[in-house]
Every structure is written in structure tokens, then in C-alpha cells.
Amino acid sequence: MTTLFLILIVIVILTCIWLNDMSARIGVPTLLAFILLGIIFGNVGAIPVYLDDHSFAKELCTVALIFIMFYGGFGTRWEAVRPVVRESVLLASVGVIVTAGLTGLFCHYALQWGWAESLMLGAVVSSTDAASVFSILRAKKLGLKNNTAPMLEMESGSNDPCAYMLTAIMISVMNHTASGSSTAWMLFAQIAFGAGLGFGIAKAASWALQRVKFTTDGFDTLFIFAVAIASYAIPDLLGGNGYLSAYIVGIILGNEDFKGKKSLVGFFDGVTGLMQVLIFFVLGLLARPAELHKAILPALGISAFLLLVARPAAVFGILTPFGKYPFKQQGLISFVGLRGAASIVFAIMAITGVEALDTELFNIVFCIVLISISLQGSLIPWSARKLDMLDAGTDVMKTFSDYSENTEMQFSQVKIGPGSAWEGKRVMNLGLPRNMLIALVVRGQERIVARGDTLLQAGDKAIVVTKAFEDTETYLVEKTIKPGGKRAGRPICEFAGEGLVLLVKRGDREIIPSGSTVLEAGDLLVLLKDR
Asked: How does DSSP classify residue 84?
């Protein structure tokens, strides 16, 4: 049984990779593929994975959402979002409440639902999904005008805590445990403990990262991993909003300077992608296509109302008074409000937290998310072009904390020997390219900050700064010359088609080779290869 389960995991992973490539080519959001994959494996697969335990799914998806929320902050570059913080926070709070309220009104009056069920549905679908939006913007390299991308990033990354609070309140209302005082305390505890503890945890973790030296590689990653979990668990234990805390911890740590931060952004980007896949795959496993026919029409109506009325009312109502956001920009922000992972998690919370719901809430939310990421998600590039919101000079990557404002620089050392072309010359007379600079000259024990009139001497070590080269198609490999091998005793020039030899390590010596360098058995070659 274990072997079959492992084979199933391999099949799912390989299928996910294939679907990811396919979705990128045809322009459909990747997460749609994972929903469909979950449906196939949960209903019509050769080995159906029948999942009908919503409580287990809730716990699984709650943990997954922790990392999504944490990375929503950790991957956000504060310098990019600072100009639109007020607007983003208002959209993430007031905008969510307006969206939830209007959607509840629609469900009550248009669909004839009860007030509690109507407002519950509104709360569940009131937040937008950052990962869905930015997977499209990053994949298509869509630069947007007038700080639109940073606003979308911060709003969609931070609006889930408000939707969670609304969902929690509606669960207590439907369970008849809500009162004026209990609701007021819940709101206070959620915000005060969530924000306060989140700030405290972030500062403590930042202090530790600056002072603790991790003796083993990778332990800093484990530390941040543990911090992400603690940022949710500690406030939640005390009645605070764990998702709000996770976001605050993420955004503070993501904008601190500490060793290895950029690689951590990449790591948590991968973890978040995995969590997204998990949630959408579980959604597919929980879905029962035979039961969805009753949910399709209500879901279409609610989706249309969200797209055409509720979301635009929230966006235009909040941004218009600022007077600096054109109609087209507000229209795009309204359109890009995709429903995603959080709506799924909150729907599962609702059906497990309330004994009986009069509506098929989970199936309706399933259809709403499916419509949102397939229809709206696919049309985001088209809508941005139609609204003239694309800006070729804007880099969407500037929104993320792993972006470097100035291209990363690479330091190299050039030793100036007797008779060198640089010996006896001043730096300004070297004729260096524009993207190359001599930053430092090491002369014995002396370190000289290089200036244009600095005179270079034999024995100096010039520290040269150039733009870093990043290319996934080019990589380095090492090869050892074996005794009797075809390279042994022959010059490098005879093997020109097998990669450029950058370095020859011969015992304790490191040789910068030329074409005439004769290779010896035992030499270790560092070669530059191109895919």
C-alpha cells in the first residue's frame, strides 16, 4: 500500500509539472490545472483518492494558508509599496467589508437566502488572491503603470485577515454564540493580539538573525520556517488573528537586511507555490462534480455581481477620493480581484464550524473560484492592454523583496604583475568599459579606494566590480583529467568544442589557462558550459 501511495505521489508531481508548463503556454492560470487534477484523482482516476473529511482538509489548508500569508509579507518590497500603503490598507480592510456586505445583500435579495447564510458567503469570498494574480504578472512580465502592481501586491497579500475575522464572526452568529460584548472582544483580540504579537515576534526574530551565527548551512531557513509557524500559532492560541500576525512578521523580516535573505525569498516562494498547489488539489479532491449542477447558476450570479458591482464599488469608493487614480487604473484593479486559496480555506472553516448550512456553500465557492481564476485570470493580460495600463519601462519584479534596485555586482581580483598592461597606468587611463569599475587597490597591507588618478603598480591587486551575470542556460562543471584519458598531455585548444576552460587546478596551484596550456593527469578543470 505504501508503494502504491508513493507511486501516486510521483504521478501527481509529474502531472503538476506538465500542467504548469501547459498552462503557461496557453495562458491559463496554473492553479486551475491543479483543481482539475484534484477532481480527476478524487473522482475518476484509476486509483481514486476519495477525500470526504472536511475537518482534516480544514487543518491541512489552515497550515498551508499560514505560509501563504507569511510569504505575502515576506516577498513584498516595502520600498515599492510605501507610496500606496494607505490605499492598500483601506482596500484590504474597508474594501473587504464593503465587498462582503454587498455580496451578502445580493445573496439575500436576489437569491432569496437567509441573512446569515448570505453574509457568510460574502465574508468567505471577500478577499482576493495574491498568488494567482502575481503568478500571471510575473509569468507574463506585465509591468503596470502608476504603482498598480505594488498596490495589488499589498492589498491582496494583506486582505485575508479581515476576511478571516468576518468569517469567524459569522460562524459565531450562526452558532448563536455571538453577542455584542463577545463580538467586540473578538474584534479587539483579533486585531490587538494579532498585530501586537506579530510585531513582537518579528522584532525578536530579527534580533536573533542579526546576532546568532548558524553553524550549519540551512539552519537559518529552518529558523525562519519555525518563526512563520509561531507567528500564527502564538496569537491564535490567545485569540488573536494568526493570519494578520503571519503577514506582519513576514513583511518586517522580508525587509530586514540579513545574510541569505534573498535565497530565503526564493525558498518561501517555492513553499508558497507548494501550499497553493496543495489547497487547490485538496479542493479538487473534495469536489463532487455530480453535485455541482445546483451550484453553477448561483455561482455565476455571485461571480458576475462580484466582478461588475461589489468589487468595483469597493475600489472606486475608496480610490476615487484620492484624486490621483484614473478611471482605467481603478477598472483594472477591480478586474484583477481574483478569488483563490483563502476563499477555499474559509469555506471549509464555515462548513466545519457550523452544523448545518442551508446553502451548498462549499460547492458554490468552488464554482466561484473556478470561474474567477479561469475567466478573470486568463483575461488579465488582455484587460491590462485594453485599459492601456501596461508600462514597458516598469519592472513588476520591483514589487518583490528579492529584487535588487541596482543590479547585483560581482567582485573580481586582478593581480598586476611586472610588465602587465596596467602597470604604471592611472585608473582613468585604462579604458575600462562603462559597466566595469576598479573599486579598491590592495597594495601589501594597504587598501586604497581607487580614484581616477590612482597609479597602479606591479604587485597590486585591483578589485574590479562588474554587473553580475545570471543565466539559467549557462552553468559551470568540473572535470578531472584521468591518467590515459584523451585530454591528458594535450593542449586545451584541441578540445575547443567541449566548453570553455576557465580554470585548471593542479595540486595547490590554480592556473588561468590559455589555448596552449597542456593538461596533465590529475588536473581539475572548471568549464563553462552552455545548454
From this structure: G
Return the bridge partners of 503, or none. Answer: 526
Question: Contact at 8 Å (CB) between 194 and 180?
Answer: no
pLDDT confidence bin for 306, thresholds 50/70/90: very high
**How is residue 216 annotated by DSSP?**
S
Q: Residue 365 corresponds to which cell in the numbers above?
A: 465557492
pLDDT at 405: 44
Instruction: With H, G, I as helix, E, B as strand and everything else as coil, classify residue 248.
Output: helix
Report d(CA 141, CA 134) in Å as an integer. 10
Are 130 and 269 contained in the same domain?
A: yes
Residues 417 and 365 occupy one common structural domain: no
Q: Within this chain, do residues 484 and 447 fall inside the same structural domain, yes or no?
A: no
C-alpha cell at 347: 469555506
In a domain, 7, yes or no: no
* Among 439, 459, 466, CA closest to 450: 439
Note the pLDDT tens digit of each residue in 362-404: 889 989 988 888 888 778 888 888 888 887 666 555 555 554 4
Q: Give backbone dihedrals phi and psi of 440, rounded to 5 degrees, phi first.
A: -150, 145
Is there a single domain that holds both residue 327 and residue 423?
no
What is the count of structural domains for the chain? 3
pLDDT of 107 above 70:
yes
Enclosing domain of residue 246: 30-399
Count of CA atoms in the C-beta half-sphere (13 A) of 221? 14
